[in-house]
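Table S2 (continued). Query chain:
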Amino acid sequence: MTTMRINGFSGMDIDSMVKQLMTAKRIPLDKLNQQKTYLSWQRDSYREMNSKVFNFKSKLTDTFSLSSSMNTQTASVSGDTDAIRAEASSNTAGIAMSVAVRSVATKTTIVPTDAMMVPASTDPILPASKAKLTTALSSLDNYTAATVPADEDKPFVLTINNTRLEFSKTDTISGVISKINGSSANVNAVFDEVSGKFSITSKDFGNKDISIVEDNYGTTRTTKMMDLLKLSGVSHQLGQGSEIEVTTSSGTNVFTSDNSNTFTVNGIVLTALKESERTDPADKTTAKQLSKITTTIDPAKAVDTLKSFVQTYNDLLSLMNSKVDEEKYRDYTPLTDEQKSAMKENDITAWEAKAKSGLLKNDDILKDTITAMRSVINNKMGQLTSMGITTGQYYEGGKLYLDENKLKAALQSNPQQVTDLFQGSGSNYKDSIVGKLSTTMTSTLQKFSDRAGTNRFSGDLSSAFKDESVMGKAMKDYTSRITAMTTRLNDAETRYYQQFSAMESAMSKLQSQSSSLLGSTSN
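Corresponding output:
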């Protein structure tokens, strides 16, 4: 039985009595807060797993699915090594080639011969200086104000490749460049502060000209935008396409491109860098020097890719297995604020470590994902074993092992077979190991999102949860119930204080009457 402390004139400790009465009433609220805290921990655990799964899927898509990551072929250039660059693709035929670059693709360019200038001062003795990126159009030395004041603030209008652009006299050269480059005119404008020259270059290779038309709006302004930029009457340097001559043991062929310097021949990506030199530079009739292209098999890159795949796969599988099998301590519930206040910091940390253990024990989403991952591997185990990839003992949960020497041998004897198994070929990507695992991860991310409200498009651990998920709705329900119960408890506490205050007042009044009565009888 609890003993109430008696003190003061009235003989009652109201705070202590109300606290004792409210302690029992707060037990259901404490349980609600503990349940909400536990749900919050679970949701955080799902977000951590979402991040791991998202990162694995990103690697599948951005690294393990790329044909270049499994490429066992390397290309080397001898002879004229400055004229061309060669990169072997995964389907390189291995045919030796000799290449002469006849021409390199260029872009149409407009470069004026004169610099844009700005007066250095009003003193005519001082020469004009070259303009800067910060120079306004109206500050250029060839700018003249309109004879009719009303026309002065009207915009300059240029139509570049059928794209209409307006410029103000207060626009700086940098601002002019931004407007042009940010438009759909498909050109790049550049200003060189050293030479003081403003130039425009097509974004595409080839001999398509750049069209620039100025509309002066019928104003009386004598200054033209083209004059300010020093582009009036300037000849255009038309771009050209590229052309290479390729010779193999079977013959010679010429390849041309109107809009690129890159060609793919016999599975080799050839990039023309400069026109091949003549065997005698002084005699333009002599033959061009040749760039000789040869290929060799080098499985190192593919081996590194598959080693990384095995390690990444094992890390995710191991983490999921550990979460599913993690011990759950049911006696360790989230601590209330009152419980924490009575404990040391180390004790709180140790307690919560056990309370958070097993948050995803036997989780159905993780178990389904583990099963799906292992199924993808097990269905290809015959081929994988022949390439040196095997699984461990049954108690290792599907862990993969890689025999590097056996894998190298497989890549050297039949690299395409290994590539097709992991990445598929063409439309068969979804049936490959990488494709099926990617599909599995997409499904898992969706399940996480539906249940916990995680972001299936991001692995950010700070991303906000979506409220319209199973756990999001449960969290809102807990919040609503806790708010309602807190209001009721506050009302009850207020009522207790009022009742005890009334009781104390009555007792005080009774005591006063008794004292008066005793005083009158004693007289």
